[in-house]
Design a protein that fits this description.
Length: 355
């Protein structure tokens, strides 16, 4: 019996017992799990386009028209990613009156951990006093939060955990080449945390799509500091420890994949675009968001955008936007949120949530 036949046998058995459906293997949870509460933290220092004009050969006009960004937040010298996580996590836990001691798992999605290891999630667990929680980091670039959401929710749906904290957090200012105008104008620092718990039937994470295409691995990366190219004096001198990106290529990929992943996730949930209350896209560039919304036929009032104030905060961008949507009343009980993201890998993800 080959692998495919074996899987079909297992699936058939599950179907007969009513424990597995064909769909539950692809992009749906076995039981309802939702985002119970959120918290966010943005460092206080604001770096404006006018500040950048003094640092590199750029202009406020170029940055605003090409990206929609006016300012971004930069972490203080003494702040690292775990510090941002802690502030966001405490707010999420407080809002839910859920003590850290009751958490079963902490996932931190980031490409800017405090250090190579131990994981940032491990440091967060210690500071929060989440004694019984397991903890790990997840590195899927800007797509990391939705991957983390799906992993955490799947664990709860399977009955393995009761509550999971999923955090998207970045200090991108630490991996930015401040002499490279093609990237340094884009990124910012920030964090947001989500507390996942079981919810009632028909609510929470209704469906998801996760994808990756390593054919685009070269488009967005940091070359040095890993096992392929360990950090040396030469790699540092050559700036190989900084983020590098083929912006144009990522742009084209992003517009296409955001539409495809969104429609696929909606189909899995049995919904269509007219059911979507709010599109919560990865906040990379207002032109990418506008193009994706146009392809999806969504009017501007059904899209949340804060890229003008925070720039691209990678794995933190979707939960920060979700938190803003909830706090401002744009996302209320029963509403449908469609989250969609793309990033290094090249990876992509979409998630449909009924609030
Ligand atoms: O989260 C996932 C990660 N990344 C992204 O989502 C980014 C996706 N890509 C983008 O957002 C856009 O491609 C960028 C904003 C990065 C660039 O916009 P673009 O419209 O694709 O510009 P371009 O790279 O084609 O550059 C156009 C011109 C070039 O000059 P020449 O060759 O036409 O003379 C660049 O050198 O703009 C120049 N340029 C700048 N000029 C002023 C590039 N960066 C700057 C700058 N200020 N900061």
């Amino acid at each position: 019996m080959n692998e495919e036949e074996k899987m079909d046998r297992i699936l058939q058995k599950g179907l007969l017992q009513g424990s597995v459906t064909k769909e539950s293997r692809r992009g749906m949870l076995a039981a309802p799990v939702g985002i119970h509460s959120l918290g966010a933290y943005l460092p206080s220092r604001v770096l404006t386009n006018f500040d950048l004009e003094k640092m590199v050969d750029t202009s406020d006009e170029w940055i605003r028209t090409r990206t929609g960004i006016s300012s971004r937040r930069i972490a203080a010298a003494e702040e690292a990613t775990s510090d941002l996580c802690i502030k966001a996590a405490r707010q999420a836990l407080e809002r839910a009156s859920w003590p850290a001691e009751k958490l079963d798992l902490i996932i931190v999605a980031t490409v800017t951990p405090d250090m190579c290891f131990p994981s940032t999630a491990s440091l967060v667990q210690g500071t929060l006093g989440a004694e019984r929680a397991s903890a790990f980091d997840l590195m899927v670039g800007c797509t990391g939060f939705i991957y983390g959401l799906v992993m955490g929710a799947s664990g709860i749906a399977a009955g393995a955990f009761e509550s999971v904290l999923v955090i998207g957090a970045e200090c991108l200012s630490r991996i930015t080449n401040w002499e490279d105008r093609s990237t340094c104008v884009l990124f910012g620092d920030g964090a947001a945390a989500t507390l996942l718990r079981p919810t009632e039937e028909g609510r929470g994470l209704l469906s998801f799509v996760l994808g990756n295409d390593a054919g685009g691995a070269d488009k967005l990366k940091i070359n040095a500091g890993g096992s392929r190219m360990p950090a040396t004096e030469e790699t540092v001198r050559a700036g190989e420890h900084f983020l590098k990106m083929e912006g144009n290529e990522v742009f084209k990929f992003a517009v296409r994949i955001m539409e495809e992943a969104s429609l696929q996730a909606l189909e899995r949930a049995g919904l269509d675009i007219s059911d979507v209350t709010l599109l919560v896209p990865h906040q990379a560039n207002v032109r990418i968001m506008d193009a994706a919304a146009k392809r999806l036929n969504l009017p501007p009032e059904r899209i949340i955008s804060n890229v003008d104030r925070y720039g691209n905060t990678s794995a933190a961008s979707i939960p920060i936007a979700l938190d803003e949507a909830v706090q401002s009343g744009r996302l209320k009980k029963g509403d449908i949120a469609l989250c969609v993201s793309f990033g290094a890998g090249l990876s992509w993800a979409a998630a449909v949530l009924r609030w």
